[in-house]
Amino acid sequence: MDKQRDFVLRTIEERGVKFVRLWFTDVIGTLKSVAIAPAEVEGAFSEGLGFDGSAIEGLTRSYESDLLAHPDPTTFQTLPWRGEIDPTARMFCDITTPDGQPAVADPRHVLKRSLAKAADAGFTFYTHPEIEFYLLKSSSFGADGPEPVDSAGYFDNVPGGTAHDFRRRSVRMLEDLGISVEFSHHEGGPGQNEIDLRYADALATADNIMTFRTVIKEVAIEQGVYATFMPKPLSGKPGSGMHTHMSLFEGDLNAFYEEGAQYQLSKVGRHFIAGLLAHAHEISAVTNQFVNSYKRLWGGDEAPSFVCWGHNNRSALVRVPLYKPSKGQSSRVEYRALDSAANPYLSFALMLAAGLKGIEEEYELPPEAEDNVWSLSDSERRALGYAPVPASLDHALEYMQESELVAETLGEQVFNYVLLNKRQEWQDYRSQVTQFELKSNLEML
């Protein structure tokens, strides 16, 4: 770590960095940033930077407000959108109390705790997110809702279109930040795009997702458009998901791979999927944390609305992607409920915990879904045991508040804060009188 710190201090000097931003997230997953001068970095490494945690969503209770942000030197990167004028860098931080204990409500620490539990069982957890978002002409909207930048569709090539330039600029910026991109393309909705990050260990991926959102927003501002990760910004159009591919490794070996097994999926992989299915309802209020998230889950367009798994079945909640016989190491499972607005630290912690529980308890994997689950009737789905995912945030919170797994994984303070914050969101939403109600009822009643 000392070598890494020395590298950071040397790089700051060599590149003439003028500001260093220290980044961390609140419990809901909003990025927080404080800029310090280069001369303060060494002190931040050795002592941390003090701040009032009670002013940050969910981080502390008011009577224990003092916290310290400790920059992680392995996350040091210069920010390409700042250019040569006042070069700026960033580092993610671990949050502690003044006596050096990890802050229990630091989302990064919640994930680290889950990863340590996996390590105790001999596993390293890797994730690979496919992040969807919409590009709009502006953040304001009229009676018809937000206006997308184009009317293109899935994989469309739009000559001279905003999205081409946008993706090219975004990918270049991400690569400059050391974030490897696997694919980028236009998605199914008008103005909707997808950029897939290459797989990495889950902590690095969560940091990368937070950086990704910032890059996308910065490029949008630069190009005079607006980017949103809202799960369902347009009625009748696809929502924005963050399908996440996951695998566990034991050393250099993929624990999900077994040659000759069905879909080359090992017992460990099958138990992991069974854990995801068994606990899907309980983790939903975190993987899909907004009222709007459930408009996506129940809006069709390949969003997973029922708890089941399938091989290459895009209507299932968990998918085992098509495998290449020569690439056993790439065996993985894909969780399709997660949306682009989720807190990646808490979501990854819970998905890992659910999968590990399935492995520990040797949960039995139910039969796979071979049909398009959306096309089945309710009675057919019931007969096959495909339970619906929560219908609303309120419904998801009912499952979460009874969950030992979620309480244990998040810790008491984060668990209680998420419940409190999200119940308030539901209450605020429920008290609204919507345009739908006015259109449907005002004249008729």
From TrEMBL:
Top-level taxon of origin: Bacteria
Gene3D superfamilies to which the protein is assigned, alphabetical: Glutamine synthetase, N-terminal domain, Glutamine synthetase/guanido kinase, catalytic domain
Cofactors (names): Mg(2+)
Recorded GO MF terms: ligase activity
The entry's keywords: ATP-binding, Ligase, Magnesium, Metal-binding, Nucleotide-binding
Domain GS beta-grasp: 15-100
Pfam families for this protein: Gln-synt_C, Gln-synt_N
Residue intervals of the GS catalytic domain: 107-445
Similarity comment text for this entry: Belongs to the glutamine synthetase family.
Identification of the protein by name: Type I glutamate--ammonia ligase
Gene name of this polypeptide: glnA_2
